[in-house]
From TrEMBL:
Protein name listed in UniProt: DUF2630 domain-containing protein
Region of interest called Disordered, as start-end residue ranges on this chain: 58-82
Domain of life according to the entry: Bacteria
A UniProt-annotated Pfam family: DUF2630
Listed InterPro entries: Uncharacterised_Rv0898c
Amino acid sequence: MEQDQQILARITAMVDDEHKLRAALASGEIDDTTEHQRLSELERELDRCWDLLRQRRAKTEYGENPDEANARPASQVEGYQG
């Protein structure tokens, strides 16, 4: 579970970064292009973290070792249909 807490802490930090980017855009510190680029990077990494956390939880639920879950590439995670 410690690994899960670390993943959640990383997610929280990235959400904070997202809020800071939006505030920086609103105050004129950065331009739209910079904000869009950085947000895209953050969103991809957030998706990867959430995917890893879901994998870990599913393995735990079904009696498997959650440490066998692996972060998947953004190209794979971004292609999921919900």
